Amino acid sequence: MPKKHSYDANLMELAIQEVKNSNMPYRAAANKYGILKSTLEIKIKNPGHKNICGPSPVLSTKEEYELVEWIKELASRGFPRKEDDIMHSLQKFLIANPRPNPFNNNRPGECWFKAFLKRQPSIRQRTSEPVSAASACVAEKDIRNWFTDLKMYLDSKNISMEDPSRVYNCDEYG
């Protein structure tokens, strides 16, 4: 794989301006600013050329940020998303918002998911472990702490539990 060079954006811009404005040859400008001649030519002849390797991203930066926030929000509520859940949600999004993408039936594959996790280090994929009978015991203190945490979470979202419309019957007869 060829070595990837990185350049100071200001130097690149100066070199491009020198070639365009003073008709300086590519090679002279490249030598003057320490840039490869071929890179300078590509930048001038293809102004919209992207600076990254690989295919164009499917989601915009904002959309990917919103996806990450959605995953984190659900995880904080106790509903972590699995790989399949995330890919299914993205498939539904792409069906609702059509755009060119390399996926079959608008569904991303495992490679996209792995690259997504690399781009988003704040998200971790974890595997659940079996719980032994001894550690499965829950003390009253743990349950009280859970309700305290739930109340703090609802208060942070300005959700009142005093509202009678929030009473639900959730037993097997409801």
TrEMBL record:
Transmembrane segments: none annotated. One of its GO terms (molecular function) is DNA binding. Keywords: DNA-binding. GO terms for cellular component: nucleus. It is found in: Nucleus. Residues 51-126 form the HTH CENPB-type domain. It comes from the Eukaryota. Its main location: nucleus. This is HTH CENPB-type domain-containing protein. It comes from Acanthoscelides obtectus (Bean weevil).
